[in-house]
Design brief:
- The chain is of the alpha/beta class and 267 residues long.
- It has a single domain, classed as Vaccinia Virus protein VP39 (Rossmann fold), CATH 3.40.50.150.
- A seven-stranded mixed β-sheet has the order 3-2-1-4-5-7-6.
- Helix 3 packs across helix 4 and helix 9 runs antiparallel to helix 10.
- The longest helix is centred in the last third of the chain and has 24 residues.
- The two termini are 31 Å apart.
């Protein structure tokens, strides 16, 4: 993929997660496990009060704000999408204790941040979407201080197992299109110079988020009719029930999962 193609891919992913479809179906905390899994990962990372934490692909700031509030740490969120960054900054104004959080528009594959500045970095259900995962992982290592830890949660998928019907928009929303398998994420971390400390299977959270999406589809269909939502995206509503059933079967068969990894910068 050329640099121009990568830029287009990043912009498309950012626009996708800012769309009405994504927000209606997934809400603001769109990754499996929601904020409970965010807190679990923070515990595994050993985030302490006063630590400086980087949240990669921070979206509208849901995880960053919650992490700062619960763990009493300082958080910098980096997000490629302009609309999501603006929304996060707006939410920051209304958030008690928001002075501990800041949001920057930037590219996870070329962070606009100084080296060795962070005690921890986290990335939730986003590494699978990055066009150049190796560059993003290397940037994580660069941003971490020696002994700093990286928490990664993401969809895992057996190589070559994604059905053709999931290669489009819904597959992107579910982080499936370019997901790695478990060993692929481990190799990615280790190739970036990080030492794996922990990995944890959270695949049941995929089933849970599918249940939530399925429950919302009826309401979303009614909303689209009432608001005259454009025909360009309405095909997702027609396809979604069958596609969700396909994803559910992939989880049941152990082909698709969701994993949490924690690694350390040994240098």
């Amino acid at each position: 993929m050329t640099p121009a193609d990568q830029a287009i891919a990043r912009a498309c992913c950012a626009d996708l997660y800012q769309s009405d479809v994504a927000r209606m179906l997934f809400g603001d905390s769109i990754h499996p496990g929601g904020l409970a899994l965010t807190n679990r990962m923070a515990q595994l990372m050993g985030v302490q009060p006063g630590d400086l934490v980087l949240d990669l692909a921070s979206g509208p700031g849901t995880s960053a704000l919650a992490l700062s509030r619960v763990r009493r740490c300082r958080v910098v969120g980096v997000e490629f999408g302009a609309q999501a960054t603006a929304k996060a900054r707006d939410r920051l104004i209304m958030q008690p204790g928001g002075a501990l959080v800041s949001f920057v528009r930037g590219d996870a594959e070329a962070l606009p941040l100084r080296s060795g500045a962070f005690d921890s970095v986290m990335c939730e259900c986003s590494m699978s979407l990055f066009p150049d995962k190796a560059a993003a992982a290397s940037e994580v290592t660069r941003a971490l201080r020696p002994g700093g830890r990286f928490g990664l949660s993401d969809v895992s998928l057996a190589p070559g197992s994604l059905p053709e019907e999931l290669s489009g928009t819904l597959g992107q929303m579910l982080c499936l299109v370019d997901a790695l398998d478990v060993n692929g994420y481990v190799d990615l971390l280790e190739s970036a110079g990080l030492a794996l400390l922990h990995r944890e299977d959270a695949s049941h959270e995929v089933t849970r988020i599918l249940d939530e999406v399925e429950a919302k589809l009826g309401l979303f269909s009614a909303w689209s009719v009432a608001t005259g939502w454009g025909d360009g995206d309405s095909s997702i509503l027609d396809q979604a029930p069958g596609l969700i059933a396909t994803v559910r079967k992939l989880v049941q068969d152990g082909i698709l999962g969701y994993w949490v990894f924690v690694a350390e910068n040994p240098d």
